[in-house]
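Appendix B, example 12.
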Amino acid sequence: MKYLITISLLFTLLIPKQSLAYNEFWGPTGHRVVGEIAEKHLSRKAKRKINKLLKNQSLAFVSTYADEIKSDKKYNKFYSWHYINMPFEESYETAIKNPEGDLVTGINTCISVIKDENSSNSDKAFYLKLLIHLVGDLHQPMHVGLKEDKGGNDIKVQWHYKDSNLHRVWDSDMIEEFNMSYDELADNAELLNKTDIKKLQEGSVVDWVNETHELAKLVYKSAELNENLRYRYSYNNFTTVRKQLQIAGIRLVKVLNDLF
């Protein structure tokens, strides 16, 4: 037992400080739902080019890559790309920007590298994986939350009597409690016609950020500090989670079809 405790402490010390401060994102299932939905709507041309870059790995498979590389310090510079901190009264255009970058600058950089004819295929593949992930993150409301509570990470709650936080509840707790695989969730997304899809794809990345920010304001009001969230919370909010995952997939495919 003494050795286990020592190993645990060493592991904690080795984790980058920033990861301890802000370590939650759409869980793997959520990101794979986004990738799977996008894959269903790829144009033939885009699918062919993407398959070549990703060596036939699916969008769902690579959608978690940007989280997986967080364990390697050489990728620390991409950390701030996963979120944006904005006061409630601000929009992205008026808010103070993170000098280390954010979701908008991250997505735009990925697009620029992929479009650059001088970029190597390995670089294009790397930034494509990041792009797939970041468009998903953009639609998780707490990724466009407040700086003072680290996007809800410091708002401690319980999830079915277990310690959690508001960010994690929206990232993964509700999704995992629903107990469906990513492809089952994608297959059961709302049926949309071409007009619905076109409407969802309107606007810019900044417009989408501001839209998610408005939703974040509602999420902050949805729970009290230390509240025990259970079935009623899922009943009231899981439809919104599913909707955001679908919107992210529909918008991701717009970005990808335009790129390729």
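Residues 1-24 have pLDDT under 50 and may be disordered. The domain at 31-259 is CATH 1.10.575.10 (P1 Nuclease).
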